[in-house]
# Entry
Amino acid sequence: MKDDAEYLPHCFRHFADICEGSSPLYAALSRRVADDPQVLALVADRQSRQPPSNLLFGSVHYQLLSGVDHALADFYLSVGGHRSPDQAYPAFADFCGEFRERLVETISTPRVQTNEVGRCGLLMPAFALAWERCGRTRLDLIDVGCSAGLNLLFDHYHYEYSDGRRCGPDSEVRIRTELRGHRICPLPQVMPQIAERVGEFRCRGLPVP
# Structure
């Protein structure tokens, strides 16, 4: 497993690039983590093959969701925070120092799950096509697995595709999808109407954003 001085900073800088435009908080934190040896040391001895950035941020978020009282919570929307991401790093670094043992324990387990809504950029056109072919009567969603709850809300997100097309409600959650190949992906004029949503979580994983 790579853990040299060049690999870890590269991972976090790459993650920052990925998060630009979709997660200002993670983009801001990742760029600072890349230059912080003390925080990088948290993932230097990881056993999992998952990206170090996913392990670190997933573990930190898990602690916040568990009710840990710390100023870092003021920057996470998921726990009621609202402060600017640009000001988050001092609190993040302090959090990593104060809860270092907890974070190392979580990072060292194989239980961290990394699920996100980006996959809906592919699923949404398929759901819309199924709804159209069924006469726009009703669409029931059943999602079993570690993503349950994310895919079930696909109609709540705004979609932007690399050919300039957009669809979906004016949501703060914006999913950007790169199209490849020569066939054009059909997008709905109206988002499908969902009659029922059923999801079941069948994974031991820890919740992460």
In short: The chain has seven helices and five strands. The longest strand covers residues 194-200.
